[in-house]
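hiii, so i know i said id send this last week but things got crazy w the move. better late than never?? heres the sequnce for the chain we talked about at the cafe, plus the structure i predicted for it. fair warning i was half asleep when i ran it
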Amino acid sequence: MDADVTDSAGTPADPDHPAGKTPQGRSQDEPGTTDSKDEPGSGSGSAAPLGEATDADASQGPADESDKGDEDKADADADAPQGEGKDQAKPSGGGEEASAGAGAGVQTWADHPKDGSASRRKRPWLRWAALGASFLVLVSAGAGWWLYKKLDGNITTDTSAAAELKVYEKERPTPVAMDALNILLIGSDSRSGDNKKYGRDDGGSQRSDTTILLHLAADRKSATAVSIPRDLMVEVPKCRTGDDKETRERFTQFNSAFELGGTACTIRTVERLTGIRVDHHMVVDFNGFKDMVDAVDGVQICLKEPIDDKDARLELPAGRQTLNGEEALGYVRARKTLGDGSDTERMERQQRFLGALVNKMQSNGVLLNPTRLYPVLDAATKSLTTDSGLDSLRDLYDLVRSMRDVPTEQVQFLTVPRQPYRLNTNRDELVEPDASDLFKQLREDKPVAVVPADELKKKGEEKEKAQDEKPDDTGSDTGSDSESPTPTPTYSGSSAADDLCEQ
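okay and structure toks below
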């Protein structure tokens, strides 16, 4: 048996017939060959096909399977590479015996040691590759979980506001457009803690330096941010103070509601003023605003004149420039040295800057890039206080995701229609019926439009001129106008698509 193996796979037993060139039928004539399955005439002129020899040895079947062997041979011949002889693809008779003895399923004797050694060489590398991949997955998952918990833990939940709002639930408006969202954004003007460098600290008292009612349309195709002047004269309801006392109802300037009764009192004041149900609220302090601007690498503005405002800690030359967080905070807070010094003009400047910030985040792909979004979220969450409906990173992510497809031209900013208060020009009062019309549109989730103040003024003058020139007999024209659809109310404002350098 050993002689047969050597003859077919190793050194030739006969010098006249090297290995691989064994004459066909040699396996039947060689001494020691004991293949009892070969019938006379069934393989005298050729070696048995590879498939037949393997099947026969494995199953110990009868010799009359030569027909099946012929079919297997045809298949083997068809699969043989082009340019190679069929005899080269078949092992010699001795090789068949060795293959059968080694076990069923091994095609050739030469393949057996090669396949085994390759398998032994590859398996350790596959194991190490699998272990390495598993390690990377675990490290990535652990890092992601740590970042998530860090951002999630940054957010402060305002439980006291929820408790007070629950007490006065019967007084609150009923939602009209169920899928729309109304979020009250409050910029805290507290001078305590890290904010004390921006002014005198009155024992850590709170001030609502900026208050914006953000309306997200039910279809999430538009967002309207309405600023409420801090000096607007309004009815402030009875509210509970921090030491659980109750204030009296009073007619006073708007920002006193936050100082007297905190967030809940401000929410109830806004709901009484507008008739709009506030679904969520966010309170952001100075440092949060600064860090968000720094996280997007600054925001570009253009100044027609240089600024030197010691109260706002701001000194800037005229022209186009990019503001960092500290400079941006001074820019949106400056009042006395910019424009006419009014709070209304400061709000308009805040709106334009917020629009530029939103535009920078969308145009630079911040909202879709995790490596750039993380610093923004970290900055925002560190100084963010919200209600329980927005106090997790998941809640904030869902909110941002619902807004990221809103076109920048449909992110609109405006101030509630106001004018100097008749009894004190240093205060404001609503302009009616314009203010009520605006609140009604938002309450019912209907669209509003904004244009720059000078353009709105020009349109108003043209309308008045057209009415003055209209003849007295206008019966047919009036009927035509009554059948036309109601135009979208238009207010003075801006959008996130506006360029601050073109203002």
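btw The first helix runs from residue 2 to 9. thought thatd interest u
miss u guys!!
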